[in-house]
Amino acid sequence: MTPLLSVQGIRKTYGFRIGCTDVGFDLYPGEVMGIVGESGSGKSTLLSCLAGHLTPDQGSVVFDTRAEGPRDTVTMSEPERRMLGRTDWAFVHQNPRDGLRMSVSAGGNVGERLMAVGARHYGQIRETATDWLGRVEITEDRIDDRPRAFSGGMQQRLQIARNLVSGPRLVFMDEPTGGLDVSVQARLLDLLRGLVREMGLSALIVTHDLAVVRLLAHRLMVMKSGRVVETGLTDQVLDDPQHPYTQLLVSSVLQV
Amino acid sequence: MIELRDVSKSFTLHNQGGAVIEVMRGASLKVAPGECVALTGESGAGKSTLMRMIWGNYLAASGSIMVGTTDVARAEPREVLALRRETLGYVSQFLRVVPRVPTREVVAEPLLALGRSSDEALGRAEALLERLNIPRTLWGLSPTTFSGGEQQRVNIARGFAHAFPALLLDEPTASLDATNREVVLALIEEAKARGAAIVGIFHDEEARGRVCDRVVDVTRFTPARAA
């Protein structure tokens, strides 16, 4: 099987400081990988490099495109990369305001992604938008409200609907449940898990919440000071951590 | 079906002065299809450690752990994931689920993960819940609020939803009343009859005597005692 995403030797520095270095992994279709580590460990820098928001200093990010097979997204042209960002890729930001258009209605936010890939029929766009709002548990009567009128949890769910409506194959998520209260978090986890299973999505999830990755991620990558210190099956890394830093991380979690 | 050869395990506690604790050495075990092997030994002897190494959430330091054609000790994460989806089932002592997911779906999930239709998966889940005497009124609720015994039974239903060719059972009859214990033992006997290889930990001696063909005392794999 061809990996959906094959990452090799990614390095990004900010002046003399290392953002991340020597990162490499393969992600296969249907796999969810969690990237954990403390603040400043380089996980968000890495995610931005992979998603094309930052240009890495070194390394390659090879994505298995639908039309042309494996292509290095670091060296592809900007329009091509943007096209990927609208179609096969989705990026869920930690702060929903970064991923939504706050002055456009909820339906418009979802519809915009569809129009970006060529949908023009208003009735169909609205129908698909309504369907997706329903899937993320936003009722139909809120479709014309602006996200500003939504709670934080609703905004996050709207962001997910906006991202997934175009049927991406790879979703990047930066702390998707950060800042949400636990009941909303649980609802979101359930939603994401169902979508991963039904749509065969692959996902990269950056988080510092180990409980979230245990329930959501198949595999785990642990980062510290810009480097990957441990990788493996999620329950293996959490139950039998090998690296000193991972042991510290796991033993620092409060038991609930 | 399950074959361990010369497996050893040690824990290095980096945050406690780098202490190295050797917990297992030279563990070997062979379980044929249709056979049930009980692991025995006192608390701390390494029964659960051995079981977790077969499941793959503990890394073996050396040796090989074959389940079907996969060597869990060396396999890539996605190979272990495929193994857990298709071949190897595990009934742990504790239920770990996404909050808010209804019991019916928790039990059906292993089948849905295999791509079975939702009708088939839910039908099988409901049949198992019925058999394990989980009241129908609870099927639509999340098991997180259930009693210990109910959670245990949900866990068992989930573990038996798919007819795994290899099964790991950690105290499957603990905290169950006589009726439900009987149901679980019958499920184990049926799994054996269809050719499943089973490794189990049973503190319940009578249950062990009834379903297990052999007993392996893990104390003989414990280095401190052997020395």
Compact summary:
The complex is a heterodimer of chains A (about 260) and B (about 230). Chain A is of the alpha/beta class. In chain A, about 40% of the residues lie in helices and about 25% in strands.
SSE blueprint:
The complex is a heterodimer of chains A (256) and B (227).
Chain A: E1 5-14, E2 17-27, E3 32-36, H1 43-50, E4 58-65, E5 69-72, H2 78-86, E6 89-92, H3 96-99, H4 106-116, H5 122-135, H6 152-164, E7 170-174, H7 182-199, E8 202-206, H8 210-216, E9 219-224, E10 227-233, H9 234-239, H10 244-251
Parallel strand pairs in A: 3-8, 3-9, 6-7, 7-8
Antiparallel strand pairs in A: 1-2, 1-4, 4-5, 9-10
Chain B: E1 2-13, E2 19-31, E3 36-40, H1 47-55, E4 62-67, E5 70-71, H2 77-86, E6 88-91, H3 103-113, H4 118-131, H5 148-161, E7 166-170, H6 178-193, E8 197-201, H7 205-211, E9 214-217, H8 223-226
Parallel strand pairs in B: 3-8, 3-9, 6-7, 7-8
Antiparallel strand pairs in B: 1-2, 1-4, 4-5
Helix pairs in contact in B: 3-4, 3-5, 4-5
How does this structure look, described?
The complex is a heterodimer of chains A (about 260) and B (about 230). Chain A is about 40% helix and about 25% strand. Chain A has about 260 residues and is α/β, with parallel strands linked by helices. In chain A, the strands form 2 sheets. A 6-stranded mixed β-sheet of chain A has the order 6-7-8-3-9-10, with helices on both faces. Chain A has a 4-stranded antiparallel β-sheet with strand order 2-1-4-5, with helices on one face. In chain A, α5 (about 120-135) packs across α6. The longest helix of chain A has 18 residues, at about 180-200. Chain B is of the alpha/beta class. Chain B has one domain: 3-Layer(aba) Sandwich (Rossmann fold), CATH 3.40.50. Chain B is about 35% helix and about 25% strand. Chain B has helices at about 45-55, 75-85, 105-115, 120-130, 150-160, 180-195, 205-210, 225, and strands at about 1-15, 20-30, 35-40, 60-65, 70, 90, 165-170, 195-200, 215. In chain B, strands 6-7-8-3-9 form a 5-stranded parallel β-sheet, with helices on both faces. A 4-stranded antiparallel β-sheet of chain B has the order 2-1-4-5, with helices on one face. Chain B is globular and about 50 Å long. The model of chain B has no long low-confidence stretch (mean pLDDT about 90). At the A-B interface, α7, α9 and α10 of A face β1 and α2 of B.
